[in-house]
Design goal:
CATH topology of the largest domain in chain A: Creatine Kinase, Chain A, domain 2
Distance between the termini of chain A: 29 Å
Largest sheet of chain B: 3 strands, antiparallel
CATH architecture of the largest domain in chain A: 2-Layer Sandwich
Helix content of chain B: 40-55%
Number of domains of chain A: 2
Distance between the termini of chain B: 58 Å
Oligomer: heterodimer
Radius of gyration of chain B: 25 Å
Radius of gyration of chain A: 21 Å
CATH class of the largest domain in chain A: Alpha Beta
Strand content of chain A: 15-25%
Largest interface: A-B, 42 and 32 residues
CATH superfamily of the largest domain in chain A: Glutamine synthetase/guanido kinase, catalytic domain
Order of helices and strands of chain A: HEHEEEHHEEEHEEEHHEEHHHHHH
Structural class of chain B: mainly alpha
Strand order of the largest sheet of chain A: 4-5-6-7-1-10-12-11
Number of helices of chain B: 7
Number of strands of chain A: 12
Shape of chain A: globular
Order of helices and strands of chain B: EEHHEHHHHH
Chain lengths: 352, 175
């Protein structure tokens, strides 16, 4: 019962924030490893159990602004609940698929999600709406300190925090922002612009991370380099690039408004029409039309709805859908149920 | 074990040769191994994600691997295994394979040492050392600016910190 309540709660990172039409959310991830224990991928089952025990105990003592962490051992969780955690971005695909003892500790508002025995023993994640990465890092760092009071983390003066994969060594930090770039996609600028980001030491991925397509015109930008730069420098750099990305997107939106206003309006109103009236919606369709709808709302072309864009996008994925309705659904039934919840969400008025 | 090729000298190298997907293992002495490496042509197999990752680590499956395999004393993982998995086995691997890892870290992060957070509890000494380093850089800058008054203050700060750490000697090495 209690776990059900925890999983169904609205994640803080999916909330709408004022004046952030492009940056939807941000995330800070810190990788940490226990001293004197092999990294999870070479650990024996017993070793992994031990690491999990130690970390779960330490994690459950942690409280952030009065919100205490709850530890969920993934090995004893039904597969559907693992899927919900994955769709809500609270755990990674690697953690979901791993067989070894592993888990995640969550706050009630899902802003903090600490993975245990992922690629590294500890992956502290803070997920927040908007672009305030500095605040997210501050919170992640507090959790890091609280954990370090209980356990010893691998750290060397020259290499910083040691991680299983050398791509994370140093700060162990991956800072990322989730951005919505429909106008850049529609004006065919996105490939070219995002392509230059690798030269700036950043990585671009789709909504669901590595290897996922940029469905719904949503992209994740994150830092590539973790060694030789401080957390502040990494965040400042990512924010500077993000600001430029926002500018390019906003310019593209204005250009479209001026040069192809009718085409744009037509696309946006059609999207709204389908979302409000369709009796079946596939995931891809939904993401495409929600993206257009959100663009129209941002540009003041159509009235806003009461529900958050990101929440609609995430909560109508197969796992979340089945979990909320508490029944297994065939793909066709999912499309039907999806259209039902989107219709309901679209008819809510802003401020209701 | 004697060298598979000359049959005379003691084999010190383990050679894994992959040609057209067929793997052959050889134990060679140092001299024969060198020769064999020079003679073999290098060709590029179709590069998948795995190939790209391995290339990043400076590992090409089409090229002969010639190395003395040593294992990490803590987790037992060898550098070949690390290369294949793209992951180290434990914190000790970072010391054990430091030399092989250095170019990988350079490629990934462009070189440089850790800057940034130091553990709150266990990092007290390191934090002091870092502060000394920063103060020394500041001292140099102040001297360049001929701001000797402030420089003297910074120098005293450095001395103070070094005393608490119990080190000294090189404090004024660069006057």
């Amino acid at each position: 019962m209690q776990r059900n309540d925890l999983l169904l709660r609205q994640s803080a990172w999916m909330q709408e924030v004022e004046n952030s039409p492009v940056v939807l959310s941000n995330r800070i991830r810190l990788a940490r490893n226990l001293e004197n224990i092999p990294f999870p991928h070479v650990l024996t089952a017993e070793g992994a159990w031990q690491a999990e025990d130690v970390l779960a105990a330490a994690l459950q003592k942690i409280e952030i602004e009065g919100d205490r962490l709850t530890y969920l051992a993934l090995n004893s969780l039904p597969p559907l609940e693992v899927k919900v955690l994955l769709e809500k971005h609270l755990i990674s695909l690697d953690l979901a698929n791993a067989k070894r003892p592993r888990g995640v500790a969550l706050t009630q508002d899902h802003r903090l999600a600490v993975m245990v025995n992922e690629e590294d023993h500890v992956r502290i994640q803070v997920l927040m709406p908007g672009d305030r990465l500095t605040e997210s890092f501050r919170q992640a760092s507090l959790v890091d300190d609280a954990l370090e009071a209980e356990v010893d983390f691998c750290f060397r003066e020259a290499q910083g925090y040691l991680t299983a994969c050398p791509t994370n060594v140093g700060t162990g930090m991956r800072a990322s922002v989730m951005v919505h770039l429909p106008a850049m996609v529609m004006t065919n600028q996105v490939q070219q612009v995002l392509g230059t980001l690798t030269q700036l030491g950043l990585t671009v991925r789709g909504l669901f991370g590595e290897g996922s397509q940029a469905l719904g015109n949503i992209f994740q930008l994150s830092n590539q380099i973790t060694l030789g730069k401080s957390e502040e420098d990494i965040i400042t750099h990512l924010q500077a690039v993000t600001r430029q990305m926002v500018e390019i997107e906003m310019t593209a939106r204005e250009n479209m408004r001026q040069q192809a206003s009718l085409m744009l309006e037509d696309k946006i109103w059609r999207a709204r029409g389908i979302l409000q009236n369709a009796r079946r919606l596939s995931s891809e369709e939904m993401m495409h039309f929600l993206s257009m709808d959100r663009l129209g709302t941002d540009m003041g072309m159509i009235p806003g709805t009461g529900t958050s864009f990101t929440a609609m996008l995430i909560n109508s994925h197969p796992g979340c859908l089945q979990y909320v309705l508490d029944k297994e659904l065939e793909p066709e039934q999912r499309d039907e149920e999806r259209s039902r919840i989107i219709r309901a969400a679209m008819s809510e008025k802003r401020g209701d | 074990m004697l060298c598979h090729r000359c049959g005379q000298r003691e084999a010190s190298m383990h050679l894994i040769q992959t040609v057209n997907g067929k793997t052959r293992e050889l134990y060679l002495c140092e001299q024969c191994a060198k020769q064999s490496q020079e003679m073999n042509p290098v060709f590029h197999p179709a590069m998948g994600v795995a190939g790209l990752l391995q290339a990043l680590w400076g590992f090409n499956p089409a090229v002969n691997e010639v190395q003395k395999e040593e294992n990490c004393p803590v987790c037992g993982v060898s550098f070949t295994q690390i290369t294949r998995a793209g992951k180290l086995g434990c914190s000790r691997c970072y010391e054990k394979f430091e030399a092989q890892l250095a170019p990988v870290l350079r490629r990934l992060h462009g070189g440089g040492q850790h800057k940034g957070k130091i553990p709150q509890r266990r990092g007290a000494v390191i934090r002091d050392k870092m502060e000394i380093k920063e103060l020394k850089e500041r001292l140099q800058a102040l001297i360049r600016q001929e701001n000797f008054e402030e420089a003297a203050g910074v120098r005293d700060q450095i001395k103070g910190l070094e005393q608490t750490l119990g080190v000294g000697g090189d404090a004024n090495a660069k006057e």
